[in-house]
Amino acid sequence: MSTHTPEGKVKVGDIAPDFSLPTQDGKVVSLKDFRGQKAVVLYFYPKDDTPGCTTQACTFRDSYEDFKEAGAEVIGISSDSAEDHQKFASKYHLPFILVSDSERKVRDLYGVQDESTKFGILPGRVTFVIDQQGVVRHVFSSLFSPEQHITEAITTLRSAQ
User: Fold this and answer.
1) Among residues 96, 101, 64, which one has the least CA distance to residue 81?
2) What is the mean pLDDT of residues 129-148?
3) Longest Cα pair distance anywhere in the chain, in angstroms?
4) Checking DSSP bridges between strand 72-78 and strand 39-44, what pairing results, if any?
5) How far apart are CA 129 and CA 154, in angstroms?
6) 161 in helix, strand or coil?
7) Domain span at residue 95?
8) What is the pLDDT of residues 56-75, one digit of tens each?
9) Residue 31 counted as domain residue
10) Which residues are catalytic?
């Protein structure tokens, strides 16, 4: 399993920084809500309803039962508004949490860098697998392999069981 760890602030072995952000349902979710109860797969993605992000979200959706069986919750995070997340989740029947990081504070806190592409600058696509104790167990960064994020996360969760 090859993994590219971004040059970010949060690395494997670190305690994942807590945050509180609005969800697509208008509630506020905090990472600490899951501590001691569930692992969390926290994935940062560029934008709702774009080709790569839709592929990634639908692959998470299609594998959601696998994540639940592995004792994990999936949380997607982008700078889109809670209202945009609601439309995106509804359109694609996404069963997991989407949170709005409109000011990009959590993206910066985790060190998720923007990536330069032939289309310009895009927000990075990085997935963090966080165990029940809040420790980061895996980091995977790939802007152009959205499905690989799901494979990497499930593999990490299963190897921890």
Assistant:
1) 101
2) 92
3) 42
4) parallel
5) 9
6) coil
7) 20-160
8) 999 999 999 999 999 999 99
9) yes
10) 53
